[in-house]
Structures are given as structure tokens and as C-alpha cells.
Design the sequence.
């Protein structure tokens, strides 16, 4: 069983600062982390490998410092890591990103055929969730998104049983292997990394590929050039007028609020139960 | 690609078990405006098994045309079968715009279709408009991080596609005498060719919190300080029979499960009363709650943007105000000896 997990380095949105003048984020202020959903994707690969054996590879696209998220994935339990890094990839939207990653997957599967690809549901810096299904289409394997449980992997039959989250409830899906999964956070809890993994990660040097290391790449499909979407403009959200401010001490404010609420009989009433 | 070959605004009509999803009806309302501006027909397209009877509903909510692919293999949503249907329609009729609800299935389908059509797709849109002169869809969504919106354009590829958050757009009042065309397309699909099977669908009826349907929501942000203080949010909610929500920060801090997150990456809610407590009001949160009927904000910072969307604002310390508010409600209940109910 060869599982490839696609991971992304993202700025930590919890810590990132916003420039009050421009209303945009100050990327320099944020530490870079492994996208949280991707951490769960790596952990799920580790859980599957415990039962099936095999190899876990992680794949990322980004600047050279993105090797940090590959090392983090090794800590969680991945065996190998690949980073595709090239100026030609810069400015990619989801379509160009899935193209580049699928070309790297092609190269990886030449060495060792891929049985399963796992991605996080989405990256917290873009929140799109579009790259996973895009990779699946380019590899011509079935995508199963919003996965909350990998119930069973049958290596003999080459099938997998999966629970996929729906708007209310879930569905049980059987898919052929290879397939691509995108996972929700609730799929697992991330274990503490065992010491040998930490040591391995600290020493690990991922394989780094430039565009020229990949095969049959159409350069027009990469990066900014290969991206059909562009950001047209940025604007502050329309500011509504805002409502009334309640003045006075805390006690006064609370009693004013109660008065307002009690007047709104169409919203809320206190009924006598007798 | 000749962009002028592409005309018309199309809406993916998502149905589950023969029932049309609310977001699809909302998109017919939003799509109607875009189609009128561009002076083109508005079409709904519908895939499934034995779903022809749904066409009239699609027309009554604003469509001029309904495209239907009815096939037993399409009974349950699957990426591989549904995308074949959408590809067939899109390549034959060449719409200039296709909108999908940002539901699990809508997002999954749109991502797969965009890849095969080699076109642009904007995720989780909250505002839609068109630049009529250039026939460009202007799909806007909160940009990462900052309190700011970004408008995404797809200038050189067609169709222009976007997924749109549920409960953000408004459906039209249904007009049952409205007329439209129903066009049925045939597709050849074999169950044996499918690589995925839906074995079972489990509807979670025991879902504890259904925020999307709640009448009153008490929502807390990181201004609550810590997990201990956040319990005041639960206490107020319990006292008045409300549901509890939280911001992304609160969920990431582990104070609440993800199901209770309100905002761009959580639920969009439209309750009668919404308490926003210790919430600054970043656009990522506001898009998920601004259509609430009556919004009460409590925050220390008088300049917090949450006050812009609030019906009533209290500048003050939630730790001081909440216990007083809870006390008042408890007292009222004791005096009247009854329950709080909501119209």
C-alpha cells in the first residue's frame, strides 16, 4: 500500500496580524505551519499503514522553506517527502495547483505505484477545497471528499469503505483503489510523535524537484499563466449603518436591553406555564 | 476558445431524495438578476433518478429553462456519474456562467467539472454581480485573514463558475403560473463502469445542535478570554433556550466542536435573535450571521466592526454584563412562572 498525502504550508491564521491601514494581512507576522487538515490527513495515512503496511509519501508545493511541513509530516509518521519548488509554480490558483501536483504524483508513481492519495478538506489560507478533487480528475481516479472515517481497506479486492460527511448525516461509500480522499478534522486525533520519528524528521532531507525534473509538463498550465482566475479587486465590506448603542453603567445597559427585548413580542415572549 | 459562443446563466439544482436543496432555490433568485442584466435566459439543470416532476418547481422559482438528465445510475450523488452529466450539458449548450451551492456535493461536483472544462472556479462566494459590458461574473468572497472582500474574475475561460454559500442569497417568491421550457437530455451510463458505490445514507436526526434552524443563538468569540469564561455563553443560552455558537477562534481553541462554528467556514445562520459576545466582527464571521433579524453585540472595543451589523450594541465587559443578563432572565422566568418562547 503506497499512500501519498498532499500537504501545504500555511500562515497560522490564529496569530496573523492585520494591517489596519490596508485591511490586508501582514504575512510576515505569521508563523508558517502545516495546514491543520493536512496533519489529520497524514495521521490517517499512519492509521491505515498500521493495518496494511506499506509506504507513506508526502508531497508539497511551495518555496524551499516549505520543507518544514514535510519534516512535520515525517514526525507524524510519513516515510518520505517530496517538495516541488520552482518560480514557475508561483501565483497558481486551484486549477494550476492541481495540475502541478498531479505531475509530481506521476513522477512519484513511476518509482512506486500510488494506491491512495489523501488531502486535507481544505487549506486554512484559501478555504477552497478544490485542489483535492482536481488532482483526482487529472489522475483519473475517484475523489471522495469530506471523509470522516476510513472504515476498511481491502487490499485483496482493492477497495476501500469510507464514511463521507453530508449536510446532515453521512453516507457509506465503497470505492475502488486507487482513489483520492479529502478528510475532515474529526476523522482522527493526532498522536504525540514518537521520539524516533522526531529524530528522523530532524535529519530528514526531502527530495526537491523543479519543473525540469517533472515529465510532460506544459508550462502554460503552471503558475499565474495556468490560472484562469484572478483577483479583480479587493474592497472593504459594505459597512451597514450600525444600530443603537446602549449607554450607561452595566446595570443600566442590561435593563435597557431587557426592555427592548420584552417589547419585541414578535421575537420573544415569556409565557405563563399555567 | 471563442468567448462569444457561450451564453446563458445556469444553476445546478441539487436534489437529495427528490427534494431540492434550499441553496439551489436561493441561487435561482440570484441568477435571475444576473441573467436579466446580461439579457440571457436563466436555466436550472437537474440530475437524478425519477426527478422530472421537480422541473415545475425550478421554473416557479425563476428559471426560464430546465435541463434534466434522468437516469437510474444518477439516483445518489457520485462525482463520477454527475460530472459526466454536467460535462455533457456544458459542452453541448455552452453556458457563460454556472453557479453551484457550496454544499459538500456542490463543491465536490464543481471542483471536478472545473478541472475537466479547464476553467476558473471561485469557492464559497458571498456576493455576486456581473460586469455587463465585458460579460464578466464578479464573484466576491471574504479574502484570507483581513477584514476585506476579494472579487474573483475569470476573464479568458468559459463557463465562469462559482460555488455560493447557502443562506446568503434570497430565493424569489414562487410563481406557480410561470412558464418555462423543459429539455430532457439522454445519457449513457452503466452501473458496472462506476468505481464508487453509495452503500448507505444515514440522516443524522439526533444532531444535537442544528444552528441553521435555531431561533435564538448565543455566539461567543475569543473575547470571552478562556474556556472557563466561555461557560457563561452556555449558561445564557440554557437560560433562554437558545443554541450556542462560536467563532473560528473558539472552535480552534477547542472550546466548541466544529458543528457549532458560525461563519465562512462554518454555518450560515439566520435566527430571530443573535447574541454576538466577545466577537470583534471580522468579515469571515459576519457573512455567516448578518442576515439574523435582531443582533445584540457585547464587546469591550467601541470600534469593533460587529457594532456595524448589530441592532443594539453594548460597549462593555461581557464578564460583567452576562451574569447580570442571565440573572434578569432567570428572574423574569420566576416571576412569570413560565418558559421563554419564540414567535
Sequence:
Amino acid at each position: 500500500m503506497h499512500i501519498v498525502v498532499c500537504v501545504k504550508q500555511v500562515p497560522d491564521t490564529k496569530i496573523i496580524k492585520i494591517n489596519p491601514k490596508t485591511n490586508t494581512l501582514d504575512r510576515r507576522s505569521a508563523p508558517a505551519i502545516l495546514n491543520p487538515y493536512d496533519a489529520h490527513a497524514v495521521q490517517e495515512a499512519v492509521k491505515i499503514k498500521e493495518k496494511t503496511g506499506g509506504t507513506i509519501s508526502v508531497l508539497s508545493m511551495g518555496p524551499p522553506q516549505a520543507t518544514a511541513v514535510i519534516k512535520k509530516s515525517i514526525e507524524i509518521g510519513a516515510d518520505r517527502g517530496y517538495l516541488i519548488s520552482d518560480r514557475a509554480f508561483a501565483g497558481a490558483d486551484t486549477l494550476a495547483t492541481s495540475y502541478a501536483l498531479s505531475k509530481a504524483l506521476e513522477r512519484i508513481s513511476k518509482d512506486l505505484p500510488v494506491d491512495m492519495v489523501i488531502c486535507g478538506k481544505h487549506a486554512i489560507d484559501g478555504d477552497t477545497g478544490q485542489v483535492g478533487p482536481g488532482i483526482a480528475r487529472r489522475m483519473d481516479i475517484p475523489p471522495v471528499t469530506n471523509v470522516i472515517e476510513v472504515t476498511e481497506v481491502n487490499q485483496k479486492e482493492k477497495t476501500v469503505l469510507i464514511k463521507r460527511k453530508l449536510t446532515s448525516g453521512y453516507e457509506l461509500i465503497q470505492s475502488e483503489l486507487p482513489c483520492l480522499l479529502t478528510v475532515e478534522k474529526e476523522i482522527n486525533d493526532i498522536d504525540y510523535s514518537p521520539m524516533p520519528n522526531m529524530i528522523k524528521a530532524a535529519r530528514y532531507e526531502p527530495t526537491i524537484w523543479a519543473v525540469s525534473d517533472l515529465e510532460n509538463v506544459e508550462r502554460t498550465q503552471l503558475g499565474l499563466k495556468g490560472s484562469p482566475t484572478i483577483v479583480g479587486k479587493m474592497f472593504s465590506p459594505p459597512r451597514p449603518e450600525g444600530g443603537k448603542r446602549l449607554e450607561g453603567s452595566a446595570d443600566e445597559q442590561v435593563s435597557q436591553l431587557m426592555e427592548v427585548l420584552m417589547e419585541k413580542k414578535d421575537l420573544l415572549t415569556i409565557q405563563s406555564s399555567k | 476558445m471563442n468567448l462569444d459562443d457561450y451564453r446563458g446563466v445556469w444553476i445546478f439544482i441539487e436534489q437529495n431524495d427528490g427534494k431540492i436543496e434550499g441553496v439551489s432555490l436561493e441561487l435561482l433568485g440570484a441568477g435571475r438578476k444576473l441573467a436579466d442584466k446580461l439579457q440571457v435566459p436563466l436555466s436550472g439543470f437537474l440530475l437524478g433518478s425519477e426527478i422530472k416532476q421537480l422541473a415545475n418547481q425550478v421554473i416557479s422559482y425563476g428559471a426560464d429553462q430546465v435541463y434534466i438528465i434522468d437516469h437510474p445510475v444518477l439516483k445518489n450523488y457520485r462525482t463520477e456519474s454527475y460530472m459526466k452529466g454536467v460535462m455533457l450539458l456544458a459542452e453541448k449548450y455552452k453556458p457563460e456562467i454556472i453557479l453551484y451551492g457550496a454544499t459538500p456535493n456542490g463543491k465536490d461536483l464543481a471542483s471536478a467539472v472545473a478541472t475537466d472544462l479547464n476553467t476558473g472556479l471561485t469557492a464559497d462566494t458571498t456576493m455576486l454581480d456581473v460586469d455587463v459590458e465585458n460579460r464578466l461574473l464578479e464573484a466576491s468572497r471574504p479574502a484570507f485573514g483581513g477584514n476585506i472582500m476579494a472579487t474573483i474574475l475569470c476573464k479568458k475561460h468559459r463557463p465562469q463558475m462559482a460555488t455560493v454559500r447557502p443562506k446568503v442569497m434570497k430565493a424569489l417568491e414562487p410563481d406557480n403560473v410561470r412558464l418555462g421550457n423543459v429539455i430532457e437530455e439522454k445519457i449513457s451510463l452503466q452501473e458496472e463502469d462506476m468505481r464508487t458505490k453509495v452503500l448507505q445514507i444515514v440522516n443524522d436526526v439526533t444532531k444535537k445542535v442544528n444552528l441553521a434552524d435555531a431561533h435564538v443563538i448565543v455566539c461567543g468569540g475569543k473575547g470571552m478570554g478562556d474556556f472557563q469564561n466561555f461557560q457563561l455563553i452556555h449558561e445564557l443560552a440554557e437560560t433562554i433556550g437558545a443554541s450556542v455558537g462560536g467563532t473560528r477562534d473558539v472552535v480552534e481553541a477547542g472550546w466548541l466542536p466544529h458543528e457549532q462554528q458560525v461563519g465562512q467556514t462554518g454555518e450560515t445562520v439566520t435566527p430571530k435573535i443573535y447574541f454576538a459576545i466577545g466577537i470583534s466582527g471580522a468579515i469571515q464571521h459576519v457573512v455567516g450571521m448578518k442576515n439574523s433579524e435582531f443582533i445584540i453585540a457585547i464587546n469591550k472595543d467601541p470600534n469593533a466592526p460587529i457594532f456595524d451589523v448589530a441592532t443594539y450594541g453594548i460597549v462593555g465587559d461581557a464578564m460583567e454584563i452576562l451574569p447580570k443578563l442571565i440573572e434578569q432572565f432567570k428572574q423574569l422566568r420566576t416571576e412569570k412562572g413560565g418558559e421563554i418562547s419564540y414567535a
Summary: Residues 95 and 179 of chain A are 19 Å apart (CA to CA). DSSP finds six helices and 16 strands in chain A. Chain A touches chain B through 91 residues (CB under 8 Å).
